[in-house]
Amino acid sequence: MATRKKGQVNNDLAQQNRTIGERIMNSSRIFSGVSHSIHVVPSEICPRDGWAVVSNTGSIYVHPTRLADPQEWAYVFAHCTLHLTFEHFRPEYQQKWQREWNAACDCYIASFLRDLQLGEPRWN
Question: What is the second-level CATH architecture of the domain 6-116?
Fold first, then answer.
């Protein structure tokens, strides 16, 4: 019988929890209409201590080995999806006030998700 290394087991669990988190977000009525246009891609593009990077093309590049609860992943996916649906990638703001714009968008999304009670943020 083949044995699996601990790292592989953790990676499998990370993938499983990400998939469940994505399903949690997609099952929410508010996200069901946009979930078809979102593409989740495990990628090394994420910083070592990061969760996900969202692009203006609809791709969410997720940390390939981050181990987290499904509810935490649901929050991450919802957060990234809201950046897209609220059109936070507007070039006129990104060019002039990128840092301020990104901070304001993150604060708005955090407040929105708190009110929506979807997923669970991890503050670390």
Answer: 2-Layer Sandwich (3.30)
Q: Domain extents for the chain?
A: 6-116
**pTM metric for this prediction:** 0.86
H-helix segments, the chain: 6-27, 29-32, 70-85, 91-116
Cβ contacts of 52-61, under 8 Å, gap ≥ 24: 52/76, 52/77, 52/80, 54/80, 54/81, 54/83, 54/84, 56/84, 56/89, 58/84
Stretch 7-31: mean pLDDT: 89
Task: Give residue-wise pLDDT tens across range 36-77.
Answer: 888 999 999 988 899 999 998 889 999 999 999 999 999 999
